[in-house]
Write a structure and sequence with these properties.
The chain is an alpha+beta fold. The protein is built from three helices and six strands, in the order αββββαββα. It has a six-stranded antiparallel beta sheet with strand order 1-2-3-4-6-5.
Length: 109
C-alpha cells in the first residue's frame, strides 16, 4: 500500500529533530518511533496516532477519527485521522502532540 508522502513530510516537520526519533516503513505505510515506541505515522492518506488507551473513546467522538485496524484487529490506543481532520497545521500539530505525549511516557525499548 502506498502512503501519502506529503502527509509524512508534514508530520516530520511537526516532530522536528527530537532525540530518539526514528522513521520506519511499517503497516504498509510509514511510522515515526520515539525511543523505540510507535508514536504516529501514515497509512494510505490517513494519519496513525498512538494515544493513551483510556483516551480512545473520547478521541473517537471527534470528527474524522476512527479506530486503526491491523490484520482485522482494532486496538484501543491506536486511531486513524482522515485527511479532512488534518487540513490545518494546527489540527495536525494537536494530533502529533497527542502521540508524542503518550509515546514519550512509555519506557524506551
Amino acid at each position: 500500500m502506498a502512503f501519502d508522502e506529503a502527509l509524512a513530510s508534514r508530520i516530520r516537520q511537526q516532530l522536528g529533530k527530537r532525540k530518539g526519533l526514528v522513521e520506519k516503513k511499517m503497516f504498509g505505510g510509514f511510522g515515526f518511533l520515539l525511543n523505540g515506541n510507535m508514536c504516529c505515522g501514515v497509512s494510505g492518506d490517513e494519519m496513525i496516532v498512538r494515544l493513551d488507551p483510556t483516551a480512545t473513546e473520547k478521541a473517537l467522538k471527534k470528527p474524522h477519527v476512527r479506530l486503526f485496524e491491523v490484520g482485522g484487529r482494532t486496538m484501543k490506543g491506536w486511531i486513524l485521522i482522515h485527511p479532512d481532520g488534518l487540513s490545518t497545521e494546527a489540527a495536525l500539530s494537536k494530533w502529533v502532540e497527542t502521540a508524542v505525549s503518550y509515546a514519550g511516557s512509555l519506557p524506551a525499548k
